Amino acid sequence: MIDEIQLEQAFIVNVDSLEESRADDYALNHLRKFEKRFYFEKSTDWRNEDEFRFVVFDCADELYFEYKHSLSGIMFGADCTDEDISKVCSLTKHLGLQYQQLKWRNCTPWFDFGRTKWL
């Protein structure tokens, strides 16, 4: 499996193209070119998860969508600060959501279930 990923174009940086353009432009173009692979495919381990994914690259206005009662939890990325997580939890605690944060240990993703520290 690792060999397949290493040979896949989505996971390879084209150094020639990178040197010909600004790093931000290259990254954005690469993300858009492989957006389906990066954002909308998932491992068979997650096949029973029903979810919606939204990817927003640039938005000058406030972004809002009506999700009604479909939100059951929030997964925070590894780089989210406790301060930002606390703000989000404070704004959503009345919804009865589950909160988790992704953490990396030994190159492996783990879920931090210590969500009560944010409430």
The SSE order reads HHHHEHEE
The helix-and-strand class reads alpha+beta
Query: What is the number of strand segments?
Result: 3
Q: What assembly state would you assign to the polypeptide chains in this entry?
A: single chain
Biggest pleated sheet: 3 strands, mixed
Shape: globular
Largest sheet: spatial strand order: 1-2-3
| Separation, N- and C-terminal Cα atoms | 40 Å
Descriptive overview:
The structure is a single chain. The protein is an alpha+beta fold and 119 residues long. The chain has two domains: 1-65, no CATH class; 67-119, no CATH class. 33% of the residues lie in helices and 14% in strands. It is built from five helices and three strands. It has helices spanning 2-7, 15-20, 23-33, 35-39, 82-92; strands spanning 73-76, 98-105, 108-112. The chain has a three-stranded mixed sheet with strand order 1-2-3, with no helix packed on it. A hairpin with a 2-residue loop joins strand 2 (98-105) and strand 3. The longest helix has 11 residues, at 23-33. The model has no long low-confidence stretch (mean pLDDT 81).
Summarize the structure in short:
With 119 residues, this protein is of the alpha+beta class. It has two domains: 65 residues, no CATH class; 53 residues, no CATH class.
Descriptive labels:
2 domains; 33% helix; three-stranded mixed sheet; alpha+beta; globular; 119 residues
Topology readout:
Layout: H1 2-7, H2 15-20, H3 23-33, H4 35-39, E1 73-76, H5 82-92, E2 98-105, E3 108-112
Parallel strand pairs: 1-2
Antiparallel strand pairs: 2-3
